[in-house]
Amino acid sequence: MPPLPGAGAHPEAEFPEYAGTYRLEACLGSGGMGVVHLARSASGLQLAVKVVHRPYAADPEFRARFRQEVAAARRVSGAFTAPVVDADPEAVRPWMATLYVPGPTLAEQVKRNGPLAPAELRRLTAGLAEALRDIHRAGVIHRDLKPSNVLLSDAGPKVIDFGISRPYDSDLRTETGKLIGSPPYMAPEQFQRPREVGPAADVFALGAVLVHAATGRGPFDSDSPYIVAYQVVHDEADLSGVPEDLAELVGRCLAKDPAARPTPDEVMAALRPPSYEAAAFIPAQRRAVAVAVEGGEREGAEDATHVRGAVPHRRWRPTRGRLVLAAALLLVVAGVGAGGFALWGGGGGGPVAAPERTPEGEGAEGAAFSPWSTALRTSGRATPVCSSAGAGAALYCAVAGTGTARIDPADGRVVWSDRNTALRDASAPIVSGGVVLSAGPDGKLRAYDPVKGVPVRETGLSASPGSVFPAGSTLLAVADGGTVTALDGASGVERWERPLTGHTRPDFGLYDEASGLAYAFEHAPAGGSTLVTAVDAGSGRAAWQRRLDGMLTPVATAGAGELVLTEMNADMQTVGLVRYAPGKRSAARIALPFRLDEPQVVMGGDAAYLLGRGGSLLAVDTGAPAAGGGKAELWRLETGVGRGSAPVLGEGGHLYFSAADGRLLAVDTGRGALVGATRARLSGGKLTYASDLPAPVVAGRVVVGTAPDGSVFAVDGLEPGGW
To answer: What residue ranges are annotated as transmembrane (predicted)?
Structure first.
């Protein structure tokens, strides 16, 4: 980061002392549209606060653009951007606060120290491609990627300044004849057809940024922006000085035709096999391998030794010799250990072909476990969704366009399957009352015999997500007006029907198996309070009902019948947790150290683990406020996942969640460290992403994930370092 300026004249010497509640401590820099200040949150978190210049604050068009910048930055907050903490686009001087990222911009780094070394350039290429992938996945086009908008942090590059970005579906258009952007890094279509600019324009800018990083100049260079614009549209890019191993890829990024440019995913794929400098480091469990030495064989020394339970913390960079050995071992594994995928069977049949096996591993307690992968999908691009009745129980999976199947979690064998290609959508099968409920051909829930896999009845209930809430052996359906109907999961017979007093259209957010209570909630129209009702799922009796302050959602239970709820602000960001004790009628509020977008929550004892949409994972002690003090935050971790599933807890103090590219990740809940990750699982050689991202299923020591390539796979949850 540039040094903080000292005292003296400044174009905005009269800048405000505060932006919202944040005291502005020092000026980090000034641009054409605003000034960026260093500030701190109430918890001491360092922030970079952008405050708009006074003349622009009075411009309605600029305010509209600033609102769009805030919205875009919030949509893409993740591992490769500076997450938005707070903003007020409607203030007298509009402002936006993001996490402060220590480190210089790429422009400053190149100016001070010259072009990047080849390894640094490769790291930058991988990081920026992944950043653009996540930005585009959020539906945003940056449109102004340039060296001064790339911060170089210890955790990799961060893309900032979404001032002229826009969503794909935005109605905001630039005025005719107004050039918006930085000519040396603009794509030809930004000059020729600015209203038709798409994600490929950001890839063109990526190519130009990489040329600058490699050479200290751009691919089109002139003191005149008009000449640069002409060169961008008509001339070939100057790639002299770009390392040979990247020149072809950078040249493709700079293609005149947007359709000829690679996607960010294809840029990342072109870097494979990745250099160890470019890859995100996840500690790998070390395994014993036979190494040929003079005079015979011996167990591999330090880098090949299997240290059970020990996860190294240092960054390991292999020598050329190690890479050659690793490549040879991979060839041996590929030639000897290749197995066939299990194919989707016909309706109601028995087991089908054996699933793919990965090399057998040894569990922490000596029991053998073989990871497996089974292909379920026969067509389309849907990701399977699965559920289980408990530890070690059968696994039931559904796939849109294919059907429902039972899988043995021990070995991935398909026990039975009901093929139903007419199935348009699929949600995880429901195990209730000894039967399996999954979507049928008419979009209704169909009940299956869990052993034989044959349909036993049609329920008449919609299979769409949220239409039926499973509460143990009872299914709850809510009608307009607040009437709840409870059906027996096994027989489908109505158990009870009654309105929930005070509710007009409640949602059920949580079922607690220990107490048999289902928790219904409904936000007040103005969002200032939430009506919460605890309902006995078996009888329909209301155990208690309270109106609590704030926009709350039940997410878990803790302690003796206490309820944990998330609290949102008016922008639908989660800002805190509430722990409510119904017996005492007391609510303890825990403010989060930063705001999270759409976090999914899992509880382990008093600890709540919140995984935000941008990949931020936060551990909070919900018992600290109730005990009268203590620090609520236990740890935080930037996982690097642009979009993650709901997290689940498993054995050995591990938390698991899935990424949109099919990876399964493991986090040590004791120290907040990423300790394992599987490979991405591609569909047809390309990354595909489901609109709904299924959570992994934990069945004892086995952790089951699903992927957009149509597979269901299992790994040893006790040994994530060996994934």
So the answer is: 323-344
Residue-wise pLDDT for 118-136, tens only, equals 989 998 999 999 889 888 8
Task: Give the HSE-up count for residue 581: Cα atoms under 13 Å, Cβ half-sphere.
Answer: 12
Asked if the peptide bond before residue 455 counts as cis, ω within 30 degrees of 0, the response is no
Cβ atoms within 10 Å of 410's Cβ, excluding its own: 15
Nearest CA to 70 out of 54, 50, 53 is that of: 50
Amino acid symbol at 702: V
Q: Give 3-state DSSP helix, strand, coil % of the chain, rounded to 5.
A: 20, 35, 45
- Name which of 524, 492, 489, 526 is nearest 506 in CA terms: 524
Are residues 219 and 210 in contact, defined by beta-carbon separation less than 8 angstroms? no
Closest CA to 26 of 52, 46, 45, 56: 46
Rounded CA separation 489/475 (Å): 6
Which tokens hold the place of 132? 């653009």
| pTM assigned to the model | 0.56
The four Cα atoms 115, 29, 101, 270 give a dihedral, to 10 degrees, of -40
DSSP designation for 101: -
The fold of 18-270 is Transferase(Phosphotransferase); domain 1 (1.10.510)
Q: How far apart are CA 38 and CA 23, in angstroms?
A: 9
565-604 residue pLDDT tens? 999 988 778 999 999 999 999 999 999 988 888 899 999 9
Burial of 160 (0-12, 13-18, 19+ CB in 10 A): buried
> What are the extents of the domains in the chain?
18-270, 290-336
Q: Is 111 annotated for ligand binding?
A: no
Q: What is the 3-state secondary structure (H, E, C) of 426-487?
A: CCCCEEECCEEEEECCCCEEEEECCCCCCEEEEEEEECCCCCCEEECCEEEEECCCCEEEEE
3 state DSSP class of 655:
strand
Stretch (H or E) spanning 363:
none
